[in-house]
Amino acid sequence: MKQQAFSLVELLVVISLIGILTVLAVPALNSVLTGRSISDAAETIAAQISFARQKAVANSRKTEVRFLRYEDPSLPGGTAGGEYRGIQIFQMDSQSVARPLTKVVALPKMAVIETNPTLSSLLTGPERSSTTPIPVAGINYTYRSFILNSDASTDLSPTGKWYVTVRSANKPGTGSSPPANFATVQIDPLNGSLRLFRP
């Protein structure tokens, strides 16, 4: 029995359909991956702050949460001055010297913390530098931080609202409105409890 092969026209039609479906699927897939990165980044921040809170209470020592800003040209948004891409926990020793409690935890590469103070009030404090080197940046980074006390309270004003907003590294914020895809971690200044918001 003789088998019929596909004609050239049929093959071209199938290849064209595959090309069209690919063009339609890639943006949707990118959007899903970016959304997942933003969610993972917010969950990472919340987990690190929770860990810092537990250590502050368990060890009865002040614990510092640092949001790290550094430039990484290999990542999206590698702008001059860098972006807030990492978090690290320090604890005060008996001489009130901050000692690293964790290694630097980098956010997923597609996510950064928004610097606009309307969207990230935890980044309104003074920007500091450090001589403690970190991966990728060495000592070429700055940070903003807050303190968790041994009773789980913070050094933040009890009347303020305190939070950080995570966004896509490829889509800078515009003004005081959050980007279309974001996540926010809010901390209660009185007891260090957290809430996570995701649209």
What does this structure look like?
This protein is of the alpha+beta class and 199 residues long. It is built from 1 helix and 10 strands; from the N terminus they run H-E-E-E-E-E-E-E-E-E-E. The strands form 2 sheets. Strands 1, 2, 3, 4, 6 and 7 form a 6-stranded antiparallel β-sheet that branches. Strands 5-8-9-10 form a 4-stranded antiparallel β-sheet, covered by helices on one side. A hairpin with a 6-residue loop joins strand 9 (182-187) and strand 10 (194-197).
Q: What secondary-structure arrangement, pairings included, does this model have?
A:
Blueprint: H1 8-59, E1 63-70, E2 83-92, E3 98-100, E4 105-106, E5 111-113, E6 128-129, E7 141-148, E8 162-168, E9 182-187, E10 194-197
Antiparallel strand pairs: 1-2, 1-7, 2-3, 2-4, 5-8, 6-7, 8-9, 9-10
Task: Supply the key terms.
single chain, 199 residues, alpha+beta, six-stranded antiparallel beta sheet, 10 strands, 26% helix, 27% strand
User: What is the count of helical runs?
Assistant: 1
Q: Which structural class do the helices and strands define? A: alpha+beta
Shape: elongated
How helix-rich are the residues, as a percent range? 25-40%
